[in-house]
Amino acid sequence: MGSEMSTPAPQGGEGGEVQQQQQQQQAPNDAIAQQQQMPLHPQSGLPSALVIVGPSGVGKNTLIQRLREGNTSFGHSVSHTTRQPRPGEKHGEHYFFTSKEQFAKEIAEDKFIEFAEVHGNLYGTSVTAVRKVLESGRTCILDIDVQGARLVRKTPLKAIFVFIAPPSLEDLAKRLFTRGTEAAEQIQKRLANAKEEINSVNERGLYDYLIINDNLDDAVDKLRAIATRALQGLDPEPGKVPESVLIEDAPLPGMPPLDPTAPQENGAQGLLLSEDPPGAASAAADPLPNPTAAAPPSTTANSASDKEAQPAVTSNGGTGMRVVAVARRKEKLEALQVHMHNLRIPPTHFLPVVCDITKDAEVATLPRIVAKRWPDAGGVDVLINNAGLSRNDASLMDGNVASWVEMLSTNVLGTTMAIKAAVQDMRRRNKWGHIINMVGLSGHRIPDGPQGGGFYCATKSAVKTITDGLRQEARGKMLPLRVSSISPGVVETEFFTVKNFGDAEAARSTIQNYASCLQPQDVAQTILWCLSAPDHVEVNDVVVRPTDQLL
Ligand SMILES: Nc1ncnc2c1ncn2[C@@H]1O[C@H](COP(=O)(O)OP(=O)(O)OP(=O)(O)O)[C@@H](O)[C@H]1O
Ligand SMILES: Nc1nc2c(ncn2[C@@H]2O[C@H](COP(=O)(O)O)[C@@H](O)[C@H]2O)c(=O)[nH]1
């Protein structure tokens, strides 16, 4: 996720030095040991510290202020910073505003438990500031960035770590702009760093709690319960950070306003999911059309990221479908978004979402994202599972196990988790739509070849069985869910490039073995045909291949 988001870690120049110095900060507790009259690691029963982390503008200070209102049990460690004070900020109250030279001197004097370069300025927590609060028998609150949290984790300071996340990057951007304390350029920098900071939630063992600061009162209540534990010196409760966390992406900035007189789509929504592997496309004989597109009410599709996805996604033209395109590669989705914009498809009808379909928590969030972005849409009515990743080092005799795992988790588990998320959304609304899985010819036969496409074919056979199994399950429960699969032969997509680990030349020579290939539009048309069948007709499987493809 978020390859464009830069990291907040210092790089080069002053930042580079900071990083080196941080690395030398092997035992920040040395500084503590030298200076302490009382230990920073209180005995059990005494208050723990509370470390609050989160991207700039998420509301950390607001929450801390609300927590401390009328409650003297919580103290705030005042940090040092080299950034300029904002209007109204007071030295010694909001920060100790310090010159770079003074900050460097204090680093050399081992004054800090942790310090880091954040958004271009230095920030640090002094031992004295923390001790001052602890000595008064209160819980000390540290409001620090991710790098600082990692460093504090290594000290003996007994603390509970809480990550505050925004409901979406869009909300975060709004908050920073509304706060109005930074210039646009600084806001862009903070937003660019936010994605990486949010990703730190997935670092095992870094945080004890995750709070999404959506409704402020709810977030304050949650923080108060955690802070009370810290005050009582209790250990954090286990399992309070989900295994994987996805925060919805912000829309692309800078799109020109749409022409209000341009014709508008209307109607259905659906998801288009695609495999979107880090490289390109795949296997022996029948690559999947990378984009699979469209459907009525709400369509979600995985692996909608490739250029080839465009015809499929844009095939919603004239059908009134609203399409959610889901893929791992943000830059591909952005290109698709620009393309849709140029086609005058309004944001009400096309929603790109970055999501790794091998991550259960991310996939499970998709219907919630659709509901939030398109509250009028109801939910997901159509799911198109396009996941189809193949690797050329996956022979059954001596293949790479990592490639087997990658194919299995993308093609089989990704598809199944997406089905579960879509079906649960349909059940919640008691509105049953259509699920279309891309099986491919590989789900029906194994092509010849010394490289061996057997494992890929096994995953596609599994998708075929899952398609049939889902239909049986729906029938058994008397649900009017329609389940179809499409089995294309060779389609000209990135499939072979991914299969060859990005080697475009190898991909080209594979494609040249075929006089002609299917184009993504051909597959998109087949999808539309399945969807257009009257309610009492369920297309089960459509095999479609280039006229001159033999096997
Ligand atoms: N739940 C919320 N809903 C809407 N707005 C909020 C919410 N929480 C905080 N805000 C607003 O968001 C803005 C940023 O909040 P705040 O200054 O507390 O963020 P912060 O995380 O401390 O930022 P920084 O790290 O830059 O110091 C403020 O204008 C605040 O009023
Ligand atoms: N590592 C540290 N990070 C800190 C400290 N004090 C604040 N911060 C973080 O910096 C950003 C920006 O703060 P702002 O006041 O300029 O908006 C924010 O996210 C804080 O969490 C510190 O002592 N160490």
Could you explain the architecture of this structure?
- This protein has 17 helices and 17 strands.
- The protein is elongated, with a radius of gyration of 27 Å.
- The model is unreliable at 1-15, 26-38, 249-268, 275-297 and 304-312 (pLDDT under 50).
- Strands 10, 11, 12, 13, 14, 15, 16 and 17 form an 8-stranded parallel beta sheet that branches.
- With 551 residues, it is α/β, with parallel strands linked by helices.
- It folds into 2 domains: 34-231, Rossmann fold (3-Layer(aba) Sandwich); 272-544, Rossmann fold.
- It binds adenosine-5'-triphosphate and the ligand Nc1nc2c(ncn2[C@@H]2O[C@H](COP(=O)(O)O)[C@@H](O)[C@H]2O)c(=O)[nH]1.
- Residues 54, 56-62, 175, 178-179, 213, 216, 219 line the site of adenosine-5'-triphosphate.
- Adenosine-5'-triphosphate binds at residues 54, 56-62, 175, 178-179, 213, 216, 219.
- Its EC number is 2.7.4.8.
- Residues 1-49, 70-91, 247-321 are annotated as: Disordered.
- One of its GO terms (molecular function) is hydrolase activity.
Fill in the keyword field for this structure:
single chain, Rossmann fold, 2 domains, 17 helices, 17 strands, 38% helix, disordered N terminus, binds adenosine-5'-triphosphate, binds the ligand Nc1nc2c(ncn2[C@@H]2O[C@H](COP(=O)(O)O)[C@@H](O)[C@H]2O)c(=O)[nH]1, hydrolase activity
Ligands present: adenosine-5'-triphosphate, ligand LQESDW3C
- Give the N-to-C terminal Cα separation: 37 Å
Percentage of helical residues?
25-40%
Count of the domains: 2
Number of continuous helical runs: 17
CATH class identity of the largest domain: Alpha Beta
Helix and strand content put the structural class at alpha/beta
Topology-level CATH name of the largest domain: Rossmann fold
Strand content: 15-25%
Supply the CATH superfamily name of the largest domain.
NAD(P)-binding Rossmann-like Domain
| Biggest β-sheet strands, sense, barrel | 8 strands, parallel
Q: Just name the CATH architecture of the largest domain.
A: 3-Layer(aba) Sandwich
Rounded mean pLDDT score: 81
Low-confidence stretches: 1-15, 26-38, 249-268, 275-297, 304-312
Using the alpha-carbon principal axes, give the shape: elongated
Radius of gyration: 27 Å
Q: How many runs of DSSP E, i.e. beta strands? A: 17
Family: Belongs to the guanylate kinase family.
Region (Disordered): 1-49, 70-91, 247-321
EC number: 2.7.4.8
GO molecular function: hydrolase activity
